[in-house]
Amino acid sequence: MSIRLEHLNYIYNPGTAYERQALTDINLEIPQGQFVGVIGHTGSGKSTMIQHLNGLIRATSGKLYYEDQNIYDENYDMKKLRSQVGLVFQYPEHQLFEVDVITDVCFGPKNQGFSPEECRKRAKEALELVGFPEKYYEQSPFDLSGGQKRRVAIAGVLAMQPKVLVLDEPTAGLDPRGRDEILDQIALLHEKTGLTVILVSHSMEDIAKYVDRIVVMNQGEKMLDGVPREVFSHYKELEKVGLAAPQVTYIMHALAEKGMKVDTDVTTIQEAADEIMRHFHD
Amino acid sequence: MIRDITIGQYYPANSILHRLDPRVKIVCTLLFLISLFLQKSILGYVVATLFLVIVIRESKVPFKFIVKGLKPIILLLLITVGFNLFLTDGPVVLVKFWIFRITDTGLETAVYMAIRLMYLIIGSSLMTFTTTPNELTDGIEKLLHPLNKIKVPVHEIAMMMSIALRFIPILLEETDKIMKAQIARGADLESGNIIQKAKSMIPILVPLFVSAFRRANDLAMAMESRCYRGGDGRTKMKPLVYKSRDRMAYAAMIVYMVLIVVIGRFVPFHIWIF
């Protein structure tokens, strides 16, 4: 078992006029190797929550265990935690700073104290994992396209070889093709290496296809938590908090209402198509 | 940390001070600052204190909030008071130990200096508490308008000021984000000597500059696509017009200034009650 949050609370600017409770009593357990989607509207606390996972934000109260060790213990090695829980922020390409791609990706492993050769080796592996073409390794990261920059930035975190990868809206601002490419790559990575992936998004459509489990956040609280089909079955409640289930959920429910005996719990377009075809064949 | 500094911050409230024309507030603040240096008698300070108390009460900004703004200048205050206290020579020596001696003039100057500095800060922060940055630049632009005749690009200066002010919170937030991102990649920002620390700032400063240029570029593009071309012939959505309350404020300020000047003239320098 990997990450466990117990009664986690976080308050922004406590004791001032701008005080705001961002997280309220979060309890969550994420086992090693799971692909989890965290979903919520803007301001629901999802970004705040994931910044707790590698100790960037310290909870106002509550406990956070990583591999059964409380990270708020006095002698806890935060640096080690940060190299094991890799966090990719929103618009991660804004953090690139080196003269060429490969040196930038080396920044993480270099901070972990590896030799220059080892750093390069890890950087290359990471760039390969995100599908970044080798001919651009020596280019300035600032000359790349938006999608390629984002790959480099994600590789920069992967090069640290974390056991847990947290991605905050990795597809924000990308076109549909760039979005699918990045998400497919992450899914492939999860399959190949078995690392825990926590994917934050505000779009159900994006993540329904990939994740094993969905955690829905609303106004700083955990609202729903379960496998996608279970979460989507609450689509009426999701709508109330400004989220929507994938379009197939609506189609299937509409068909069921019209008297077609289809399974309304399917989550992806492929499943929906198969289900409708099956119905016609019967 | 950075948010603790209240100087230059706006405090939203609904008071007569908030509604005053920004030009009135700028002019009156300047006059108040000058008034602090026009007199040196206890009666003068009583008048200045009374004036400040009335203005603070009218502004509806909590006193606690104003005092918080004094925190960053405590060190400056202590140094100034210390120098004046120990290094001013005077006729009567009050305390003497080792190489230090405190004279009556020294004590007097130190106390006055402390009061002056505090009133300076309180007076000017009252202006920023009650005036949004945009109003402030509007006021400055209008006040400096006559300088246009001698080819000072007043509108451009005001526009630059308001853009700079607008960018401060954005860049603060950006810095915070980039710092977190680099810490997540194992960057160590705390340990090491000065050179190492300076070096460890590179991963933060480079992206910060890039982002500042990107934002500036976006802004320039947005302004251009709305046909912005400087101040010539540009009209305001809410032009500044003096209302009766503004004239009343000027009148009150004039009364105060006359009072201060008269006291400075006719009340002797040293009325020290001890």
TrEMBL record, chain A:
Please state what class of enzyme this protein is: translocase
- The UniProt record lists the keyword ATP-binding: yes
Principal cellular location given in the protein's record: membrane
Q: Where in the cell is it found?
A: Cell membrane
Q: How does it sit in the membrane?
A: Peripheral membrane protein
Origin superkingdom = Bacteria
Q: What is its EC number?
A: 7.-.-.-
| Residue ranges annotated for the ABC transporter domain, each copy included | 3-244
> What would be one Gene Ontology cellular-component term for the protein?
ATP-binding cassette (ABC) transporter complex
Provide the family line: Belongs to the ABC transporter superfamily. Energy-coupling factor EcfA family.
Show the InterPro entries listed in the entry.
AAA+_ATPase, ABC_transporter-like_ATP-bd, ABC_transporter-like_CS, ABC_transpr_CbiO/EcfA_su, ECF_ABC_transporter_ATP-bd, EcfA2, P-loop_NTPase
User: What is this protein identified as?
Assistant: Energy-coupling factor transporter ATP-binding protein EcfA2
Q: What's a Pfam family this protein contains?
A: ABC_tran
Give the NCBIfam families listed for this entry. Answer: ECF_ATPase_2 (TIGR04521), PRK13637.1 (NF010158)
A molecular function (GO) term: ATP binding
CDD domains for this protein: ABC_cobalt_CbiO_domain1
The entry describes its oligomerization and partners as: Forms a stable energy-coupling factor (ECF) transporter complex composed of 2 membrane-embedded substrate-binding proteins (S component), 2 ATP-binding proteins (A component) and 2 transmembrane proteins (T component).
PANTHER family from the entry? ENERGY-COUPLING FACTOR TRANSPORTER ATP-BINDING PROTEIN ECFA2, HEAVY METAL TRANSPORTER
Which species is this UniProt entry from?
Hespellia stercorisuis DSM 15480
Keyword set for this entry?
A: ATP-binding, Cell membrane, Membrane, Nucleotide-binding, Translocase, Transport
Reported function = ATP-binding (A) component of a common energy-coupling factor (ECF) ABC-transporter complex.
From TrEMBL, chain B:
- State if Transcription regulation is listed as a keyword: no
* Record carries keyword S-adenosyl-L-methionine: no
GO molecular function annotations of the record: transmembrane transporter activity
InterPro entries assigned: ABC/ECF_trnsptr_transmembrane, EcfT
Where it sits in the cell: the answer is: Cell membrane
Q: Which UniProt keywords apply?
A: Cell membrane, Membrane, Transmembrane, Transmembrane helix, Transport
TM spans, by residue? 26-53, 73-99, 248-273
The membrane topology noted for this protein in its Swiss-Prot or TrEMBL record is: Multi-pass membrane protein
Query: What do the Gene Ontology cellular component annotations say?
Result: plasma membrane
* Family to which the UniProt record says this protein belongs: Belongs to the energy-coupling factor EcfT family.
Q: Briefly state the protein's biological role.
A: Transmembrane (T) component of an energy-coupling factor (ECF) ABC-transporter complex. Unlike classic ABC transporters this ECF transporter provides the energy necessary to transport a number of different substrates.
Assembly, in brief, is: Forms a stable energy-coupling factor (ECF) transporter complex composed of 2 membrane-embedded substrate-binding proteins (S component), 2 ATP-binding proteins (A component) and 2 transmembrane proteins (T component).
Q: Kindly provide the name given to this protein in its UniProt entry.
A: Energy-coupling factor transporter transmembrane protein EcfT
